[in-house]
Amino acid sequence: MIKKFTYMEPADNCGVWWVSVFHLYYGFNRKTAYTGNFVKVSVKRTKPDNWLKKKAKVKGIVIRTKKEFVKNDGSWIKFFENSVVLLKKRLNTQGRILEGPINNCVKRRKFRNAFPGAM
After folding, report:
1. Backbone dihedral angles phi then psi of residue 91, each to the nearest 5 degrees
2. For 60-72, what is each residue's pLDDT tens digit?
3. In the chain, N or C terminus with fewer CB closer than 10 Å?
């Protein structure tokens, strides 16, 4: 469950350490975002000499949340941290290597093919 002003870690090797959510897509009064939802984030902390600078505003997709995700069969999955993958236009990812697991509902998205090791 991601709200505005939530700090998250990117899950790819884009050179960013921390981002902050400032907009949730899909709805005028949307309060929370879950796994698989798109968010607009602001870069807060980056590696030195990174091409993606601080205060940059980029689109991202949430792939891991601390709040448990309940499946249709009654089982649930929960992660230790909130993570996002930063995107360019049309679901092209900023980084090329995905770190850590991702949920099945996100695996069905088209951007999964951008990561060679993500199954």
Report:
1. 60, 25
2. 999 899 999 888 8
3. C
Task: Give the integer Cα–Cα distance in Å for 102 and 11.
Answer: 9
Q: For 94, phi and psi rounded to 5 degrees?
A: -70, -45
The pTM assigned to this predicted structure is 0.85
Residues 53 and 12: their CA atoms lie apart, in Å, by 16
DSSP state of 67: S
Please give the span between the terminal C-alpha atoms of the chain, in angstroms, as a whole number: 24
Output phi, psi for 107, to 5 deg.
-60, -25
Closest CA to 18 of 80, 84, 64, 95: 84
Tell me the one-letter amino acid at 25. Y
Is 50 in contact with 16 (CB distance < 8 Å)? yes
Q: Which string of b and e fits 29-53 if b means at least 16 CB within 10 Å? A: eeeebebbbbbebbbeebeeeeebe
